[in-house]
User: Which sequence fits this backbone?
């Protein structure tokens, strides 16, 4: 089984805020001591941190649930509960985080040490010391902690490399990577020897360096799932320059120019924007018989498909086996990288809107529906959050919740929908009678 994993679906849940406390001063010589219950502590965030030591998403293969700790409850003497520690989750460089429900990109993590909060912890509930007023100097009211944010995420790893090697299986990509870098990819005389991306660092004779990714071989129909399919095409997206490796000896019986067209078609079908990346054609296996003649024919066919004023792609004849032409190829690649900017990986439409953790005034505070058993059902983010943070162990808290519902217009809305005295009303699993 391959130890390379580049996609994962996980669930994250931030910590709940600690509950506020109801307490009173009861010292012997302190008359009318008043409320003394402190606030709950804040729940922990779930934070992704980029770790350059990680290379795959294998850590998420069996561990798919991440939950931060809740904050401590408030204490007597007006003391706040301790806030929970944040949960740090380490991810490899090049990890894209999407919301599983909407498919929108939440963040793209590419720099070592980069941090991003993917789920925010809930704030602590207020203790009764917060609710004291001249009219009610000894309130028996406290809040429960706010629930932590919970969401399902899709993680997608796209390797960080300046240059990507693409081509049919067995054209010599892995051999090329092994002679221009210190990488040790698997090399064999059969198709799909490479089944995971291999990375290596190149240093040219002039001292310039860049990262090269050897990607598993593509075949016709890869963009529709043939062969290894689209599984590794995503890794080309971060590259700035593509080295298109072609077996100029035609040892597999295919026409080199047809190979060139077929691979470009698959890149275009997968993502049209891949064709914006400059390509260098690497005519490999030039030490083999017929390679020189095939290269001449290749250049003729290539020129015939370009207009007179169009610039032809650079072609570099090399032999990975004899190391012929490698220095020239690497210098040209470094030169092309210097003048090629970073490509925008995601459009604005792909990105999730900036997170807002309040309540939108345009969004209804609640919704009313009716269940099959004739029970009225109240729902809505604002109402459900208010319900969750209400301490139903205290009569004053229940009365306060009732006043808040009335202030939101729930009573009037139920009455307008036909609710009658004694009808059951449900919020989540909690039921109560409607009083007209």
Assistant:
């Amino acid at each position: 089984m391959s130890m390379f994993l580049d996609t994962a679906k996980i669930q994250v849940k931030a910590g709940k805020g600690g509950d506020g406390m109801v307490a009173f001063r009861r010292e012997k010589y302190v008359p009318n001591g008043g409320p003394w219950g402190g606030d709950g502590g804040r729940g922990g965030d779930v934070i992704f941190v980029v770790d350059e030591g990680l290379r795959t998403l294998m850590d998420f293969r069996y561990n798919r649930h991440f939950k931060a700790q809740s904050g401590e409850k408030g204490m007597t003497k007006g003391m706040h509960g301790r806030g929970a520690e944040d949960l740090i989750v380490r991810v490899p460089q090049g990890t894209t985080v999407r919301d599983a429900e909407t498919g929108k990109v939440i963040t793209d993590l590419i720099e070592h040490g980069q941090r991003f909060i993917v789920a925010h912890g809930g704030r602590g509930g207020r203790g009764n010391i917060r609710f004291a007023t001249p009219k009610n100097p000894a309130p028996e009211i406290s809040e429960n902690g706010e629930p932590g944010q919970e969401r399902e995420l899709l993680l997608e790893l796209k390797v960080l490399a300046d240059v990507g090697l693409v081509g049919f299986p067995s054209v010599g990509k892995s051999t090329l990577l092994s002679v221009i870098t210190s990488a040790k990819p698997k090399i064999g005389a059969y198709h799909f020897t490479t089944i995971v991306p291999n990375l290596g660092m190149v240093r040219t004779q002039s001292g310039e360096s860049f990262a090269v990714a050897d990607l598993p071989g593509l075949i016709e129909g890869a963009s529709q799932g043939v062969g290894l399919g689209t599984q590794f095409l995503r890794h080309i997206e971060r590259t700035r320059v593509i080295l298109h490796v072609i077996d100029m000896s035609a040892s597999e019986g295919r026409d080199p120019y047809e190979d060139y067209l077929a691979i470009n078609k698959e890149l275009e079908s997968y993502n049209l924007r891949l064709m914006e990346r400059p390509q260098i054609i690497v005519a490999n296996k030039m030490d083999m018989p017929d390679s020189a003649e095939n290269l001449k024919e290749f250049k003729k066919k290539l020129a015939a498909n370009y207009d007179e004023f169009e610039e032809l792609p650079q072609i570099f004849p090399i032999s990975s086996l004899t190391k012929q032409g490698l220095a020239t190829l690497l210098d040209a690649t470094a030169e092309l990288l210097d003048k090629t900017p970073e490509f925008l990986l995601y459009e604005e439409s792909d990105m999730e809107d900036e997170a807002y953790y309040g309540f939108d005034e345009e969004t209804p505070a609640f919704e009313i529906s009716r269940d099959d058993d004739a029970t009225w059902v109240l729902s809505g983010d604002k109402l459900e959050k208010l319900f969750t943070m209400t301490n139903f162990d205290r009569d004053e808290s229940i009365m306060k919740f009732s006043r808040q519902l009335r202030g939101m217009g729930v009573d009037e809305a139920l009455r307008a929908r036909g609710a009658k005295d004694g009808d059951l009303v449900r919020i989540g699993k909690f039921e109560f009678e409607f009083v007209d």
User: Anything to note?
Assistant: Confidence is low (pLDDT under 50) at residues 188-194, 222-229.
